[in-house]
């Protein structure tokens, strides 16, 4: 049985957004042996290459389901940057944002916890969220 644990990146102010997210999985000894055999035979460059390929194959296999779900849920695909100016504009208009992202959502380092709470009604991230610990704590009850 495989179990995945997402390890959140700690990107500080001015740092580049990482191109990938690290995960940890637990595999049975025999499954891991098969992966290592395929790497040793040169089918894959390394374990990570095998795992990325397997994941992409499964995503492709279920493309119809995911496409319909993304459309039905009105989810933004890819990178979603949420900045102070956008949130201040929403606050000035009295709007609460419902943000849905499949990919990476980043909340700018200049966004205060108060501004985030005043303007983000719900935040659904299928993938990774990068935000300061204070903003994460302020939105804890709104994260889906």
Automatic annotation (TrEMBL):
Signal peptide: none annotated. Pfam families: RHH_8 (PF17723). CDD domains: RHH_NikR_HicB-like (cd22231). It comes from Methylobacterium persicinum. It comes from the Bacteria. This is Arc/MetJ-type ribon-helix-helix transcriptional regulator. PANTHER family: BLL4998 PROTEIN.
